[in-house]
Specification:
Blueprint: H1 2-27, E1 37-38, E2 41-43, E3 63-65, E4 69-70, E5 77-79, E6 85-89, E7 93-98, E8 101-105, E9 107-112, E10 118-120, E11 126-130, E12 136-138, E13 146-147, E14 154-160, E15 167-176, E16 182-190, E17 199-206, E18 209-219, E19 222-223, E20 229-234, E21 239-244, E22 249-250, E23 261-265, E24 271-278, E25 283-288, E26 293-298, E27 301-304, E28 311-313, E29 317-319, E30 326-329, E31 338-341, E32 343-345, H2 351-383
Parallel strand pairs: 14-21, 14-22
Antiparallel strand pairs: 1-4, 2-3, 5-32, 6-9, 6-31, 7-8, 7-11, 7-27, 8-29, 9-10, 11-12, 13-24, 14-23, 15-16, 16-17, 17-18, 18-19, 20-21, 24-25, 25-26, 27-30, 28-29
């Protein structure tokens, strides 16, 4: 009967610990990236298959809480308004570096620290990107805070300059000198009544100042190769710019309507960082005030064959104390999934399942306590027996 009490006590202990796990799951139902643990129980057999008193051990010695397993199923990806709120759509984990320490996380709000590194908010853990050899490294945007100016050398035009019109103008053509200075050019196309068929005069100006005058010719609506590239030089600004009409520029009749347009102007002004985000390819992308965008590196994602070996830390972080080998890959790799920005992963706790388990644990605890109560009553009855001389 004393053995029955110990069996009941094993139930109280196991179910108390199970309640602790269920409680931890429930209270973390709103913790970002939280992964619930499963609760299961197993029987306790005698030593080497036999009871301590030498009898058949098949009658058992109670119950214990089995080792918990973490449920790594993906939680809901909830939309946010921050470019550096990141989550993983797939099985991979984001890689975080802090000196020699490496941690992993499924989701998090990131920010740029004073040294230009993208770190998990409230920590010093830096978001890792992949280097040329595919290893995770920390990356600073400090060296890319300014986008140096590039001098304009070519203006590319396309579409049709009506052969029946006598004038056409392209305004607000922005060209840039070597120091990033912005010069607004205007290109005017005119055709005199006594000019040769298909011949135009091209005049480029900046404000009231004339940059240059060149002749443009078309043969039966097709541009004359000798005038397909017109060079205009602005000595005060140090500019030498080619007006390129060699690609898809025609001159066919369309009444007075011309569709000639500026397709591309190379060069750009100086740019300062205006945004830091992660693009659809999982790359850290900097946006500049000059409308340019530059990609700095691909975010590292880690995949594990046995994620159960990872150790849970506070804040939804995981460590790899067992040294389980990680596979590092870029976003979009089927082994790890894809990084998504403006998303945070919610907890994957199934509240209905937890409440169901909670009821079962409560009933198990009640039953175990009843075993102890009945055993105690039987022992009291035994103590009450009197000898009948």
């Amino acid at each position: 009967m004393l053995g029955a009490i110990y069996v009941g006590l094993s139930g109280l202990t196991a179910y108390s610990r199970g309640l602790q796990q269920i409680s931890n799951n429930v209270v973390n139902m709103n913790s970002l990236g939280f992964k619930a643990t499963t609760v299961s129980f197993g029987n306790v057999a005698g030593l080497n298959g036999r009871s301590q008193d030498g009898s058949d051990g098949n009658r058992g010695h109670g119950v214990s809480l089995d080792a918990s397993r973490r449920d790594f199923r993906q939680g809901e990806l909830r939309q946010t308004e921050r470019d550096l709120d990141l989550a993983v759509d797939g099985t991979g984990l984001l890689v975080l570096l802090n000196g020699s320490e490496t941690l992993y996380t499924r989701t998090g709000s990131f920010e740029v620290d004073v040294d230009g590194y993208i770190v998990l908010a409230g920590t010093n853990y830096r978001l890792a990107t992949l280097d040329g050899s595919g290893r995770p490294v920390s990356l600073s945007i400090d060296a890319s805070r300014i986008d140096p100016p590039v001098e304009t050398t070519r203006i590319t035009l396309s579409d049709n300059l009506s052969s029946t019109a006598t004038s056409f103008e392209l305004a607000d053509i922005h060209v840039y000198d070597a120091l990033g200075g912005d010069h607004v050019w205007r290109a005017k196309f005119t055709r005199a009544a006594d000019s040769a068929p298909g011949e135009w005069t091209v005049t480029v100006t900046e404000g009231t100042r004339t940059i240059g005058i060149r002749t443009l010719r078309f043969n039966a609506g097709v541009i004359d190769p000798t005038t397909a590239e017109l060079l205009f030089e602005d000595e005060p600004a140090g500019l030498s710019v080619t007006l390129d009409l060699s690609r898809n520029v025609t001159s066919f009749s369309s009444g007075e309507v011309s569709t000639l347009r500026t397709a591309k102007v190379d060069g750009h002004a100086t740019g300062a960082v205006s945004s830091v985000k992660v693009n659809d390819k999982g790359e850290i992308e900097i946006g500049y005030s000059n409308s340019r965008k530059v990609q700095l590196g691909s975010i590292a994602l880690a995949g594990f064959r046995d994620p159960q070996a990872l150790e849970l830390r506070s804040g939804g972080l995981f460590a790899n104390p067992a040294g389980v080998e990680a596979e590092y890959a870029r976003s979009g790799d089927t082994r790890v999934g894809a990084v998504t920005s403006r998303r945070l992963e919610a907890s994957n706790v199934d509240l209905a399942q937890q409440f169901g388990d909670l009821i079962l644990i409560q009933r198990g605890f009640q039953a175990s306590s009843q075993v102890i109560s009945v055993s105690n009553d039987m022992i009291q009855q035994l103590f009450g027996i009197r000898g009948q001389g």
